[in-house]
Structure formats: C-alpha cells, structure tokens
C-alpha cells in the first residue's frame, strides 16, 4: 500500500514540477504582459493542484491532509481575483496588448478616467 | 439567520483544521473569537447570500467537476503552446456577452473564465466582459457559450 502511495505521490509531484517549469518558460518567452499572465495561469492552477495532491498522498495524519486541502481551495479562490485585478490595473494604465495582426480584432481603446 | 449559522459553522471548521487542539481552554478561546468575528461581520453588514451562497450548494459539485475538466484541458493547450513558441500563439482581445442576471452569477462566470488558463477577464461593464485570450480559438469557444449556459443554469437553481 505504501509503495503505491509513494509512487502516486512522486508521479503527481513530477507532473506538477513539469507544469511549473513550463509556466516559468512561458513567463520568459512570451512577448508581452498579458500573454505572460496566461503562462502564469498554468502555474497557479494545475501545477499548484498537482503538487498539493502529491503532498496530500504523503501526509502522515488527517489534520495535515485537511490543511493541504484548505491551502488548495484558498489558492483556487484567490488566484483568479488577483489575476483580474492585475490585468485590469494594466489596462487602466494604458498598457496596450500586443495583438495578432491577421485577426480582425475589435477596436478597444483603454480609457483612463 | 441561516447565513449566520453557516458562517459560524465554516469558521468553526476552519479553526479546528488550523489548530488541532481540543483542550477546554483552547475550545473556549475558539468560541470567543468566533463570536467576535460574527459580531464584526454583522456590524460590517457582509453576512448575506453573496458571502454565504448556500443556495448554490446542491448544483455546485456538478459545475466544479465540469470546470476542473475544462481547467485541465486548457492547461494542456497552454503548455503545448508554451513549448511550441511565439509563432503559434494568436493573442486576441474581445468582448463576450454574459446572460447571468445576478451579480454573483456574473462573478462566477468571470472567475471561471480567468481560472481556465489562456483566458483572462479584464473588465466587466453591465453584461459585457472584456476578455484577453492567448489563442483565437479560446475566444471562439467562449462565444459558443457553453460555460455561459452552465453558469446561468447554476444561478437559476436557487
């Protein structure tokens, strides 16, 4: 039983680490602020969940398991709000996103009251 | 009254998980602090259906299951495009129409859009959301309105 838990835990931690690495690579590679935020989105949703699930499988007692669950739920509730606040602040301050040239994007003029 | 009760319940559970102690002194201190927080919340007038959306409890698990599936799929898509490089992405800014009536429905929809990687809600004005997407296809998917329909269904249950 223990060996299955250890193997499952390592698998989840490995996937989580790979997703974190990908998020970091995207953060460095993508061209502008808004696209970089999408790369961070990977790190803050699935990568966090995978690493926390990996740790849950190793937890010694129920209390630690419950605490890890609370951390996961809190992260999932807080991160979209923070992302939205960040993107909104960027648009308010006239940071114009780099958009794909071929697309017929709608005209969006950032307003600064 | 129902909302006060659920707030007290969730605060107690949160306290128990965080402390793990169950001596009489600790439990009475917990009761004291929870009562104080309840009093503060009432004074601030934040105990209502928006901070304690208990009316959604029955439909929420189904929606979460669907949302987790969407989050995993879009994570795979974004990671794929991170490794493919800058030529493969098509950043798009577009407005999406939301069909929810209540504020809480709109917030659930906007947060769901932001939570799935590859799309971020930047602005809410009435029933128009300004959404930035990493890929043009993500905007097309949102415009098909599957997520919108599910959130509206969730909201209508109450």
Describe this entry's structure for a reader.
The complex is a heterodimer of chains A (113) and B (158). The radius of gyration of chain A is 19 Å and the shape is elongated. Chain A has helices at residues 2-29, 33-58, 62-92. Chain A has one domain (2-88). Chain A has 113 residues and is an all-alpha fold. Chain A is built from 3 helices and no strands. Chain B has 158 residues and is an alpha+beta fold. Chain B has 2 domains: 2-44; 54-156, no CATH class. Chain B is built from 6 helices and 3 strands. A 3-stranded antiparallel sheet of chain B has the order 1-3-2. In chain B, strand 2 and strand 3 (128-133) form a beta hairpin. The longest helix of chain B is centred in the middle third of the chain and has 25 residues, at 60-84. The radius of gyration of chain B is 20 Å and the shape is elongated. At the A-B interface, helix 1, helix 2 and helix 3 of A face helix 1, helix 3, strand 1, helix 4 and strand 2 of B.
Helix-strand blueprint:
The complex is a heterodimer of chains A (113) and B (158).
Chain A: H1 2-29, H2 33-58, H3 62-92
Chain B: H1 2-19, H2 24-44, H3 60-84, E1 92-97, H4 103-115, E2 119-125, E3 128-133, H5 136-144, H6 146-156
Summarize the structure.
The complex is a heterodimer of chains A (113) and B (158). Chain A has 113 residues and is mainly α.
Number of domain units of chain B? 2
Mean pLDDT of chain B: 88
Shape of chain A: elongated
How far is the first residue's CA from the last residue's CA of chain A? Answer: 62 Å
Shape of chain B: elongated
Order of helices and strands of chain A: HHH
Q: Supply the number of helical segments of chain B.
A: 6
What is the residue-mean pLDDT of chain A, rounded to a whole number?
85
CA-to-CA gap between the ends of chain B? Answer: 17 Å
What is the H/E string of chain B?
HHHEHEEHH
Range of strand content of chain A: under 5%
Determine Rg of chain A (CA atoms, Å).
19 Å
Going across the biggest sheet of chain B, name each strand in turn: 1-3-2
Number of domains of chain A: 1
Radius of gyration of chain B from CA coordinates: 20 Å
Give the oligomeric state of the chains in this entry, treating copies of one chain as homo and distinct chains as hetero: heterodimer
């Amino acid at each position: 039983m223990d060996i299955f838990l250890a193997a499952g835990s390592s698998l989840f931690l490995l996937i989580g680490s790979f997703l974190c690495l990908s998020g970091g690579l995207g953060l460095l590679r993508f061209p502008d602020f808004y696209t970089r935020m999408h790369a961070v989105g990977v790190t803050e949703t699935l990568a966090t969940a995978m690493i926390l699930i990996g740790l849950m499988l190793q937890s010694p007692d129920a209390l630690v398991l419950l605490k890890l669950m609370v951390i996961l739920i809190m992260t999932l509730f807080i991160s979209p709000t923070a992302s939205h606040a960040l993107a909104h602040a960027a648009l308010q301050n006239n940071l114009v996103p780099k958009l794909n040239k071929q697309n017929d994007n709608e005209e969006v003029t950032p307003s600064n009251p | 009254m129902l909302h006060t009760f659920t707030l007290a319940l969730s605060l107690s559970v949160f306290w128990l998980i965080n402390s793990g102690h169950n001596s009489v002194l600790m439990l009475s201190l917990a009761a004291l602090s929870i009562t104080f927080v309840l009093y503060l919340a009432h004074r601030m007038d934040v105990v209502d259906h928006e901070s304690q959306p208990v009316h959604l409890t029955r439909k929420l698990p189904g929606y979460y299951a669907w949302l987790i599936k969407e989050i995993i799929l879009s994570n795979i898509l974004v990671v794929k495009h991170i490794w493919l490089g800058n030529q493969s992405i098509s950043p798009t800014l577009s407005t999406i129409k939301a069909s929810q009536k209540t504020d809480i429905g709109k917030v659930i929809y906007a947060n769901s859009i932001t939570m799935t990687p590859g799309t971020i809600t930047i602005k809410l004005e009435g029933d128009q959301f300004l959404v930035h997407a990493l890929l043009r296809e993500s905007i097309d998917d949102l415009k098909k309105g599957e997520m919108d329909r599910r959130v509206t269904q969730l909201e209508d249950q109450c």
